[in-house]
């Protein structure tokens, strides 16, 4: 099962054909489910997941972000995370294993 923890809440990730999702990604706040289109590119799927994460944060924190602002944040996150994935994993390991003098 695919799950994400977003601000202390577990969200299930379900993959479905785009015609069943109605978009590249969609969230059901009541069920805490994020639907991602299975028949789009990897980049579109990751961007959709990031978009729905920002949507969940926006909802939980009552930020009132407009949809275009959420889309811009998701695209910006993707452009920062995707090319730096290995560096982020290394940084995560280094932080977890840091020795304090």
Descriptive notes:
The protein is α+β, with helices and mostly antiparallel strands and 101 residues long. It has one domain. Helices cover 50% and strands 22% of the residues. The chain contains 4 helices and 4 strands, in the order ββαββααα. The chain has a 4-stranded mixed sheet. A hairpin with a 4-residue loop joins strand 3 and strand 4. The radius of gyration is 15 Å and the shape is globular. The termini are far apart. The model has no long low-confidence stretch (mean pLDDT 89).
Q: How do the strands line up in the largest sheet?
A: 1-2-4-3
Q: Give Rg in angstroms.
A: 15 Å
What is the helix tally? 4
Helix and strand composition category: alpha+beta
Integer average pLDDT: 89
Number of strands: 4
Biggest beta-sheet profile: 4 strands, mixed
- Overall tally of domains: 1
Could you tell me the strand content as a percent range? 15-25%
Helical content band: 40-55%
N-to-C span: 41 Å
How does the overall form come out from the CA principal axes? globular
Helix-strand sequence: EEHEEHHH
Write the layout of secondary structure elements.
Blueprint: E1 2-6, E2 9-16, H1 18-21, E3 25-28, E4 33-37, H2 42-61, H3 67-81, H4 85-96
Parallel strand pairs: 2-4
Antiparallel strand pairs: 1-2, 3-4
Task: Give a quick precis of the structure.
The chain has 101 residues and is of the alpha+beta class. It has helices at residues 18-21, 42-61, 67-81, 85-96; strands spanning 2-6, 9-16, 25-28, 33-37.
Features:
4 strands, alpha+beta, 101 residues
